[in-house]
């Protein structure tokens, strides 16, 4: 689930940081650049592990900042396909489940990967929500908000940045445009698709 990635990056060190120890100043700048950010194909950066080397310190004409090239290692969240992870329920809708690890929320279990057979019913705790219920040997096993949910990683995707669409024509009603924007999901640079359709997956309480 967590891996180490070695990266080389060239950065500017602003003049107001030059009175600090070089390693500490460089580390602070790197953390502001990478922590809690997704790097394509590498995953989500959760921690700076160490700095391997710092080279440079050049000041280019017309620039008061020093430029350094640093090699460093980051701790990345990058689960592999087939890995089993425990999470908590964040959303439950007719389209499936959204799960959360606390530090990462873009985990989705779509309908085809839900445990079979199943049925859905209105969620008594959340208006307009859906509760998923697994049917097994005549018994019903609901997925509740308090459950710890074990899922298997089905895919890990890094969607491309969305391209800004051209402006609507003047004839479009502004209220309709605002409503459409509210329905759009925030862009997620890393999306995990999970599966509950196997023995041992789903709420851990099912398998006690």
Automatic annotation (TrEMBL):
Fetch the InterPro entries from UniProt. Answer: NA-bd_OB-fold, RNA_pol_III_Rbc25, RNA_pol_Rpb7-like_N_sf, Rpb7-like, Rpb7-like_N
What Gene3D superfamilies does UniProt report for this protein, alphabetically? Answer: Nucleic acid-binding proteins, RNA polymerase Rpb7-like, N-terminal domain
Q: Where is this region: Disordered?
A: 161-188
Chain intervals with Basic and acidic residues compositional bias: 165-185
RNA polymerase Rpb7-like N-terminal domain residues: 8-64
A matching Pfam family: RNA_pol_Rbc25
Membrane among the record's keywords? Answer: no
GO cellular component annotations of the record: DNA-directed RNA polymerase complex; nucleus
**Which key words are in the record?**
DNA-directed RNA polymerase, Nucleus, Transcription
Q: Domain RNA polymerase III subunit Rpc25, which positions? A: 83-207
Is Oxidoreductase found in the keyword set? no
Q: Where in the cell is it found?
A: Nucleus
**UniProt record, GO biological process:** DNA-templated transcription initiation
What is known about what this protein does? DNA-dependent RNA polymerase which catalyzes the transcription of DNA into RNA using the four ribonucleoside triphosphates as substrates.
Q: Which family does it belong to?
A: Belongs to the eukaryotic RPB7/RPC8 RNA polymerase subunit family.
Q: Which PANTHER family does this one have?
A: DNA-DIRECTED RNA POLYMERASE II, III, DNA-DIRECTED RNA POLYMERASE III SUBUNIT RPC8
User: What name appears for this protein in its UniProt entry?
Assistant: DNA-directed RNA polymerase subunit
